[in-house]
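Figure caption, in words: inputs first, then the predicted bound structure.
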Amino acid sequence: MLSLLLSLSIAASCTATTLQRRDSTGYVNPADGGGSMLTNAPDTYPLGLGEPLNAIIVGTSDSEVLSLTGAGGLNNYFLSFGFGGECFGVHVGDAQTANLGDGQGTINQTAEMRWDYYNPSLGTCTETEQGGNHFRYWVQNGTSAATGAIFMAVSEELPLSQNHDIIPNGYNLGRDWLVGNATSRNITTSDYSTSGGTQFSGSTSYNGWTYQTTVTYTTGLLNATSVGINHNESVPVNGQPAIDGLVAVMEVKALQKGNGSSGSPK
Ligand SMILES: *[C@@H]1O[C@H](CO)[C@@H](O)[C@H](O)[C@H]1NC(C)=O
Ligand SMILES: *[C@@H]1O[C@H](CO)[C@@H](O)[C@H](O)[C@H]1NC(C)=O
Ligand SMILES: *[C@@H]1O[C@H](CO)[C@@H](O)[C@H](O)[C@H]1NC(C)=O
Ligand SMILES: *[C@@H]1O[C@H](CO)[C@@H](O)[C@H](O)[C@H]1NC(C)=O
Ligand SMILES: *[C@@H]1O[C@H](CO)[C@@H](O)[C@H](O)[C@H]1NC(C)=O
Ligand SMILES: *[C@@H]1O[C@H](CO)[C@@H](O)[C@H](O)[C@H]1NC(C)=O
Ligand SMILES: *[C@@H]1O[C@H](CO)[C@@H](O)[C@H](O)[C@H]1NC(C)=O
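Bound structure (2-acetamido-2-deoxy-beta-D-glucopyranose present):
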């Protein structure tokens, strides 16, 4: 815990900037290829509800970071901001599917990651039991849109005893907390514009690798709505829709490359 906190605070270069918006290369809107920015959750009531793909790691990120297997790849990057694989590799809950409009059609999630409560070896077990932040992700890598982008469905969930339902406002909060973890700053709604364009940038480190993450809150991919959103009876707060429609578009660069073996302790 101490080492993670230290690396977060030392590595943190916390800036909210108003840089120019990047060209949106590095991912393709799934809707353009017949897909959707909503996942398909199994056994919803009514049937057919989904969860928003409310964060994207763009394909213009460094290729080492986008690797599913490399030492400095996605698993090490996720660990750098406190997310690990599932407790002892045991999957709790049903897999979801998504269609990223890349020609692969509707496919299972690649993996599900959970916040590790600052304990990279056992913390995701705490998350599984007590709830907390988590995400499922898919890779946009089919032949008709091989961008390599990682589409993530982020939400803050309730404890296992409450069936891992989503907390009130849990999609927006989960996204903001994940972005906060990845840029080493606390983010609240007053820090960004609901019309998009706000950027946050910061760095995190793990196992000798240091990553610079630049996030742009982006509109136009999802609507601000409750319609079609899983748990839309209990998630909306203060008369607002279940999701605010903003997607955290993240570009990640490897500032420093480690020399060690795989970063995953599991
Ligand atoms: C998708 O996941 C389900 C379990 O949720 C599994 O039964 C099925 O075999 C998986 N499909 C593929 C293609 O891996
Ligand atoms: C994406 O597809 C390319 C070409 O098939 C492959 O080399 C690469 O490993 C894939 N990336 C991921 C993250 O699956
Ligand atoms: C990191 O994530 C945790 C759990 O979701 C959250 O409580 C915390 O506020 C986040 N930290 C930052 C700096 O956003
Ligand atoms: C975020 O806020 C919490 C609670 O106020 C504080 O303990 C923590 O140090 C803050 N983290 C950062 C990175 O500013
Ligand atoms: C947003 O809502 C409008 C109007 O209902 C609809 O035409 C559009 O397809 C929706 N966009 C998304 C991304 O769901
Ligand atoms: C939840 O989504 C379903 C399906 O689109 C819709 O029929 C229902 O009205 C929504 N419920 C709320 C509370 O928005
Ligand atoms: C790897 O880096 C560490 C410092 O992080 C250094 O002590 C070690 O000698 C390096 N090993 C190799 C093989 O370069």
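The chain has five helices and eleven strands.
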